Amino acid sequence: MRALSWAYLAVAYAFVFLPVVVLVAFSFQDGRLPVPPFQGFTLDWYGRVLGERDLMEALVNSALVAAVSSLIALILGFLAAHALARVRLPGSVLMRGVLIAPMTVSYLIIALGLLTLFNQAGVRLSLWTAGVGHVVINLPLCFAITYAAMGDQQRNAERAARDLGAPEWKVLALVSAPMLAAPLAAAFFLSVTFSWDEFIIAFLLTRFDVTLPVEIWSMLRSGISPATNAVGSLVFLVSVTLVILLEVFVFRRAK
């Protein structure tokens, strides 16, 4: 039975990570196409990618959109979670459902809805409109993680701070937020990860300044090459780095 469990685990990991291994391996292909047989090892494709101005601008755009949208989603999600966890409001269950609802909606539907809204309002498509879309998809995640972490311990500490005369903004900034540092950091890093490689919303809600996934799609339109594998490997490296940082600096400290 134990051997069967290990075999199942090995098959599951192979199913998940084999495409990534192939992607990374053929990013070092010393040839024009990332297909077997492997023709030799080279770092030239990474040099071309890092020297490509459009790709580097798209990378910076992705990092900017991911960081700013995740921070805004985190703040809004934290405030909404605190309000619904601490104050009994009529229809609070419905409010929680509405806040979490975007998690069940396709990114394509959200992007099309926002595109229609921006066109009707006369808003120019840009990185800011893509950022708004990423706030919409990440806010429910931040709300759910923060709301689930709130308990009686935080409630008692907040009550004590108010009894000592602390204004509400100090209670939030100096008591509630530090006590929820681990779940807040987890929500932020997960939001950055989701925003970093999101394509559909970024594609429909940007025009001239694009994010890295949109730039990669533009490269794929002209055919596959080891350069696209190199870009994909760099995107995967950033995502893995964020997950490792989350594990080292958040989850282990929380334990």
Can you describe this structure?
Helix 7 packs antiparallel against helix 8. The longest helix is centred in the first third of the chain and has 34 residues. The two termini are 31 Å apart. This protein has a domain of 153 residues: Orthogonal Bundle (MetI-like fold), CATH 1.10.3720.10. The protein has 255 residues and is mainly alpha-helical. The relative contact order is 0.14. 77% of the residues lie in helices and 0% in strands.
> For this structure, what is the CATH class of the domain at 57-209?
Mainly Alpha
Radius of gyration: 22 Å
CATH topology of the domain at 57-209: MetI-like fold
Compute the separation of the termini in Å. Answer: 31 Å
Largest sheet: none
Instruction: Tell me the helix content.
Output: over 70%
CATH architecture of the domain at 57-209: Orthogonal Bundle
- In DSSP terms (H or I, runs of 4 or more residues), the helix count works out at 12
Q: Based on helices, strands and strand pairing, what is the structural class?
A: mainly alpha
Strand content: under 5%
Uncertain stretches: none
Question: What string gives the helices and strands in order?
Answer: HHHHHHHHHHHH
Could you say which overall geometry the principal axes of the C-alpha atoms support?
Answer: globular
Q: What's the count of strands?
A: 0
Mean pLDDT across residues: 81
